Amino acid sequence: MTDTLQQLAEVLEQRKSAAPDSSYVASLYHKGLDAILKKIGEEATETVMAAKDGDRDKIVYETADLWFHSMVLLAHAGLGPQDVLKELERRFG
């Protein structure tokens, strides 16, 4: 499971230096923090709506979008999934 997150983090890091027209993620980085945050807000809303509908497949799909865009934010801030996992481990005790 964490291998997938780490692989995604590596790809996201590579896209930070890519040309804006080369990929969706590169274009998000180029647009800046506000664009990334807007996408997270949109995906969070879509996740809530899917949960309200009770559609399990859609909940998973929208949560994946939310996690993905959250990881874009982490990479933008110089962080990665390991930073979040460390915090969750700390909370777990």
Give a quick summary of the entry.
This protein has helices spanning 2-15, 24-31, 33-53, 56-76, 81-92.
In terms of topology, how is this protein built?
Blueprint: H1 2-15, H2 24-31, H3 33-53, H4 56-76, H5 81-92
Helix pairs in contact: 1-4, 3-4
Describe this structure in words.
The protein is built from five helices and no strands. With 93 residues, it is mainly alpha-helical. The longest helix is centred in the middle third of the chain and has 21 residues, at 33-53. The radius of gyration is 14 Å and the shape is globular. The protein starts with a helix and ends with a helix.
Q: Which residues form runs of ≥5 with pLDDT under 50? A: none
What about the largest sheet? none
Structural class: mainly alpha
Quick check: average pLDDT? Answer: 96
Task: Tell me the number of helical segments per DSSP (H or I, 4 or more residues long).
Answer: 5
Q: What is the element string, with H for helices and E for strands?
A: HHHHH
What form results from the Cα inertia axes? globular
* Strand residue content: under 5%
Question: Roughly what percent helix?
Answer: over 70%
Oligomeric assembly:
single chain
> How large is the radius of gyration?
14 Å
Number of DSSP strand runs: 0
Through-space gap between termini: 21 Å
